[in-house]
Design brief:
Largest sheet: 7 strands, parallel
Radius of gyration: 24 Å
Distance between the termini: 70 Å
Number of helices: 12
CATH superfamily of the largest domain: Glycosidases
CATH class of the largest domain: Alpha Beta
Order of helices and strands: HHEEEHHHEHHEHHEHEEHEHEEEEEEE
CATH topology of the largest domain: TIM Barrel
Length: 465
């Protein structure tokens, strides 16, 4: 009788939640996301322990794929996972670093392809509470810190690929030379015949059993136990079926305001935004849909101790501005260590970006794509105001003659100034609408200088220059 009553109440609740979700339009759910423009991705898990090295050998490709790339047996990986002990984990410090960097939301890997959950789960004992010496839920204190500091929180969840919970799919990762891998010919031959699996234990259940026994209940836990969530970031659609996707999609009714990406199952479950990975789309590739570039600071998502090939703050700031000028969001990744610390290089990059964002953030937050397309010398974003439009011109190159020419702007210029120091700058307007901005001799910001030009009225889209 009790089970029947609970089932009835849950059905009523889900029905009410689904109705609430349907009442919220996509524009209403996406409003904060379009305003934010800049977020932090966090890839963290057991793979941070080997940090890119297995049995004395550096394993190529991205760090979080080490179990797949090195074909680590399930029992070996699970034994290693027992020693996961992030005693230096400080979720409030993480959130503060994201906020100080100018980021408005965080998306963390609640469970990656290795099947290890960073949260307390009844659906699989391969989780941080039940399986490790640390023994505490890692997501709850992060959710509390995000709420305290006004940062939106999202969870990444690997719904199909799972290398430790039997029945999950697996993808073959080829070497640069292709199959077979000269270091493990027998294993590579096995994976070819077993859809990417390399351990017989991975196939002791069906994919349908995995979805019903692990993925569905874990997603329900994530949507139930951590307060309001802003994003559910699916990954990957490989091996998914429509039936499995429908079961997972139905759970979104538990969080009526949540938004999702396009990686649940393609093409029938497009989500709310697209997710180009490690690249910024060309204008020709954009179709008016919401999109978000996710990108690493160095060459890996999960921590690798020897990957020191970090992008400079200047490059990442230009990436952010380029993305905003095309109407997208930037989700920039950090891969913490097994102890729970951000790498020093990542902290330095975040600090540099934060200093720039404190001065120039208005050229990113809540802006729309450039009405001109791309300029050879830089990028433009725009923001409609009560009295007109603010145009933000970000200069990749400082003009040698000190003149910046903006063609075809029919709106009357009200004011122009440098965001770097607030100084006003002179503009002249020709009869054909071309505006010439006279700049100071020296570039005031070595990272990226932004000029704000306020005009009357709205600015219509132009032909890309």
């Amino acid at each position: 009788m009790k089970r029947t009553i609970i089932a009835i109440l849950l059905t009523v609740f889900l029905g009410q939640s689904l109705l609430a979700q349907e009442m919220l339009t996509k524009d209403e759910r996406m409003a904060w996301w379009r305003e934010a423009r800049f977020g932090m991705f966090i890839h963290w898990g057991v793979y941070a322990i080997p940090a890119g090295t297995w049995n004395g050998r550096q394993i190529g490709n991205i760090g979080e794929w080490i179990m797949n790339r090195a074909k680590i047996p399930m029992m070996d990986y699970q034994n290693m996972a027992k020693e996961f002990n992030p005693v230096k984990y400080d979720p409030e410090a993480w959130v503060k670093m994201a906020k100080d960097a100018g980021m408005k939301y965080i998306v963390i890997t609640s469970k990656h392809h290795d099947g290890f959950a960073l949260f307390d789960s009844e659906a699989s004992k391969f989780n941080v509470v039940d399986h490790t010496v640390y023994g505490k839920d890692l997501l709850k204190p992060l959710a509390e810190a995000c709420k305290k500091h006004g940062i939106k929180l999202g969870f990444y969840y690997s719904q199909a690929q799972d290398w430790n919970n039997p029945g999950g799919t697996a993808i073959r990762r080829l070497t640069k030379e292709g199959w077979p891998n000269p270091d493990s010919v027998i294993i590579d031959a096995y994976t070819k015949e077993h859809k990417g699996h390399w351990d017989w234990r991975q196939e002791t259940k069906t994919f349908e059993q995995y979805i019903d026994d692990v993925a569905v209940p874990q997603v329900r836990e994530l949507l139930t136990n951590y307060g309001d969530l802003a994003v559910l970031w699916w990954d990957t659609p490989s091996g998914m079926t429509d039936e499995a996707a429908e079961k997972l999609q139905a759970l979104l009714a538990l969080q009526p305001a949540i938004i999702t990406n396009d990686r649940l199952k393609r093409p029938n479950f497009p989500g709310d935004h697209k997710t180009p990975e490690q690249r910024i789309p060309n204008l020709a590739d954009l179709d008016g849909s919401d999109w978000e570039t996710c990108m690493t600071m160095n060459g890996t998502w999960g921590y690798k101790s020897y990957d020191k090939n970090y992008k400079t703050p200047r490059t990442l700031i230009r990436n952010l501005v380029d993305i905003a000028s095309k109407g997208g969001n930037f989700l920039l990744n950090v891969g913490p260590t097994a102890e729970g610390e951000f790498p020093a290089e990542s902290i330095e990059i975040l600090e540099a970006m934060g200093k720039w964002m404190k001065i120039n953030g208005e050229s990113v937050y809540g802006t729309k794509a450039s009405p001109w397309g791309l300029f050879p010398w830089g990028r433009c974003t725009r923001k409609e105001t009560k009295n007109g439009t603010s145009l933000y011109f970000s200069l990749y190159e400082w003009p040698a003659d000190g003149k910046l020419v903006i063609p075809g702007l029919s709106a009357r210029v009200v004011s122009a100034r440098l965001l770097a120091d607030g100084s006003k700058i002179k503009t002249t307007t020709a009869k054909n609408g071309t505006i010439t901005i006279t700049l100071p001799q020296n570039d005031p910001d070595p990272l990226l200088t932004v000029i704000r030009v306020d005009v009357r009225g709205k600015v219509a889209d132009k032909i890309a220059q």
